[in-house]
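Annex B. Sample input.
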Amino acid sequence: MERLRVLTLNIWNKKGPWERRLELIREGIRRLSPDVIGLQEVIFYNDRTQADEIREGFGYEAAFGMAHDLGDGMHFGNAVLSRFPIEKRVVHPLPTAGDEERRALLHAKIRTPAGTLPFFVTHLNWKFHDGVARESQVVSIAEYVMHETPIGADLPAVLVGDFNAVPHSAEMRFLLGLQSLGGKSVHFTDCFEHLGALPGYTFDSERNPYAALTHEFPRRIDYILVRGPELGTGRGKPLSAEVVMTENHDGVAASDHYGVFAEINVQELGRRFH
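Annex B, continued. Sample output.
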């Protein structure tokens, strides 16, 4: 195994024509054949999640992490789908803005042929004016990732999700090592920044019929980030990145967000050529 194929998608819970959207999501997964998938806005109800519907027949293992209890046995959160065994699942609650929004980080430890992969999925506060809440959330995420996955112990950590923040925002600049927050710093690599075709909008109100309902401007707010590449090994170096699941079928899209797909090197480059 030389490269890890990663997909992230906010599935827009069960809004719109869910059954038709489910078909499009599954078709996108069939076409892309990712190894690991991070999903946001996943609904759990009656001992089953939307991630279970998505993975049916594909052979993926699944892990769900609740972010918010909607009542009546219904939960809202994040999910991981993996071709490889999920050995551990942890849900880390994130700071709130003092309102009804509840957000979380889902941590899955995945045993791949190349080594143990620390994989993280999140979905941050959505309101434009909630930048302070998102800043607190990314600091909490960085602290958790650094504590749980020391550099060099496993494969470089991969963090994906809907951050509800554009690349030049303070919260994304912090995660990319371009500024500090609260006296802390961290560094992830944005796969799309280096390899994707601009503009890379993942919430596109001009082309996506569901995003158009918001009357917002198009922007890039969904990311695949990797804590790499490792110095001297090249593990964690992005190899490709693109915005995916952009199709519109007779007014039906897979979600109100587009997905992001990336390939990440997981083999020591020095060993590959000797």
